[in-house]
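#dry-run=false #mode=assembly
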Amino acid sequence: MSSINNTIESYQQKLAISRLGLWLFFASDAFMFGGLLVTRFYLLGNKNLNLDQTLGLLVTSILLISSFFMNRAEVMVSEGNHKGFITSLVITILLGISFLVGVVGLEWGSAHFGPGDGAEGAVFYMMTGMHAFHVLTGIIFLSLVLRNGLNKKYTPEKHYAVEASANYWHFVDVVWIIYYPVLYLMGTI
Amino acid sequence: MKNFMSTGIVKGILYQIVGSFIGAGLLGGIRALMGLSWKTEPAIVLGGLVGAIAFMVGVGAFKDWWKMAVGDDVTEASEVAGEQGFRRYFGFSLDHKVIGIQYGILSMVLLVLGGSLALIFRVELAQSGLQLLNFVQFNTLVGLHGMVLIASILMGIAAMSNYVVPLLIGAEDMAFPRLNAFSFWIAVPASIILMSSLFFGGFETGWTAYPPLSVRGPMGIQMFFLGVFFVGWSSILGALNLIVTILTMRTKGMGLFKMPIFAWSVLATSIISLTATQLIGLSFQLVMFERLLEMSFFTPSGGGNPILFQHLFWFYSHPAVYIFVLPGLGIISELLPVFVRKPLFGYKWVAMSSMGIALTGFLVWGHHMFTAGIEEYLRVPFMYSTLLVAVPTGVKFFSWVATIWQGKARFPVPMLFVLGGIIVFLLGGLTGPPGGTVSTDLHLHDTYYIVGHFHNTMFGGFIFPIFAAIYYWYPKITGRRMSETLGKVHFYLMTPSFFLMTFGQMRIGLLGMRRRIADYDPAMGFDFTQLLITIGGYLIAISILVFFYNLIVSAKKGEPATGNVWNSRSPEWDILPSPAPAHNYAGIHFNVVGEPYDYGLKGSKYVELAQNVGQRKENDE
Amino acid sequence: MTKLSPLKRGVVIFIILGVLTAIEYYLGISDVPSILLWAIALIKMLLVLQFFMHINRVINPKKGGHE
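#status=ok
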């Protein structure tokens, strides 16, 4: 009996440690994204980048919806709803991929400047590129979670990997929540 | 031979070499397929990147993580039976004590490399005119001297914190042992890449890598950027690990204000390196991309602004000096009470002053840019925030002085280095405000005065304390003491030579000697002082050779150390045998029953074995 | 908010985020002061941090374990 209690306690302890570590990583990464934000305002000031607004709204909505399904996936795994968990996770991954296609495929292709065309191009490609890189790593994490989920590795009691990658996914969403108005909406043309 | 080839580090380096060629070849291949000609610069960047990752694969850093990722079970880190004996220091180990030593070895190797670079260009400077080096070589050596030693310092503080912190707070290991090993091993390919910038044409910018020069100069700068980038990873992940360890893995009953003071300074340091390091990585990455993809972040003709780089760069690189010195100051506060047999004066204030320095450190970066053309209205606020740092630093000095006051001081070698550290750091602190005040800085900026000031802070805040720490904890590591005589030779040779060097630097700096130049006008009359500085530098090098001799020989022939060598109250001396056993306190329960530094108070104890408490209760009944 | 089941709470938060994004978009294309956009972005960020990322789990580790 006591040994069972011990393992539960040590799992809880480990969980607390892992969560703290993950959040410290977010804090650290946020400084990097913050640095890019400073770069944008230092170089461009109150200047609008004049980008395709429809596309911008579209990719933003896609990422927001993906975050919603990510949340559902996490809740469902903690409730033991295996099928719902897998479905929501697959939807999240597909939406993540469409976000990448939208930004890297369409937006980069159709933008009216390249990375070498002055400060606007440099800032835009660096910010979207860095964010897209994080989305890509998020998709990789989620795919691994999906693989393990299909092999039924997660239980309602123990699914920290799901929680961690969900948190990472939401973190990437938070970054975009800030970057979207900064890149698309703010300033005058 | 097979044994040798399977050593982690050898395998890692082989993988790195192969990986570098694959990376470079990959880029060349893609460009060839696209019908473009060979271009060396992107090829070496990709080669360096792939090489570093290949090193980590070769050393075995990803093995367990891969298993976790595909859902296999991995052995608990505490149950992994690592290799034994000397070999374990050269392979992937999860034990924080082994990793601490590994960091220490790397730090000392980099210290020798970085110091030797300085010895070379000091010969050039000993006399006006060019004798030995050309301009690019000189600039490369100066820049690498700076960055290699910064890496050495980062490794050195990681060594101290990794080895000592879990022992001090009564933890079995660090919070994330695999991450801990990763953060050490990534620093090895990083150092190799950093040094390789010598072979790709060097670079002309000094360690600060300011654009536009760094955008235009030779491509050695790319290897410099890449090396620093990976050292940054090491620093960030190590800091993350330390924060979590200190916050969550303290032994029962050890509140935050009952921790040994060194843990506080490591916590403060780690907060800075966790967050601010991102900014130097970012700034270097932006220059790297500007060179590779012509993204004009810093070129005014393309809409960029070189001042932006300085903002991003100094946002890390000023707090970085607090990263370098805070652990050292923590060592001073930790060791001083042991050797004067008195409580540390104002424990809470000292703990908070570390935090104060760390947080104020984020607000002062602009003082490096007074002459760079930043907005005029920014100068005075940055001046005040800079001078504000003197307040928490002053708290530390008052605490040290009050601790020494009327103490029963003993003077073994660690204490000598502690006192040396206090004096040298005081000199560094006093020479700082003229650089932080706008009116005087306009004259002092980029002169040898700043060089002298900086070497004061680094010696007082890092070099002296780390030597103190090594002499102090060496018996805990090896079970033998280092030779006191040789230690005293080391100290009494290094300290005056250092003063010769730094006073020389500050003197010619005040007279107008510019930093980072290979030659100077003989009519300025600096030749004699420059020669003295060079002699001082070589004497320091000799004293460090004495130290290494002592370090190596004492491991085999030193006087065996048993029990509480320094009569300290902290748990690693009070409870554990020397050398410290694997898994530290596994199977030992101890309670925190008092204050950490109540030396000289009769009958008071900081920690006590749990069964003793039981016995005492029985006695009471 | 605490009374709702986690799934329903997710839906509510999502709707709020969607509405805020729509408002943000219309404000953005009609050239308002950027402080308003910052405010909305900040609210959205806090919502995600609180309800999707469960930031209080790390501040208060006893809460929200995997029961």
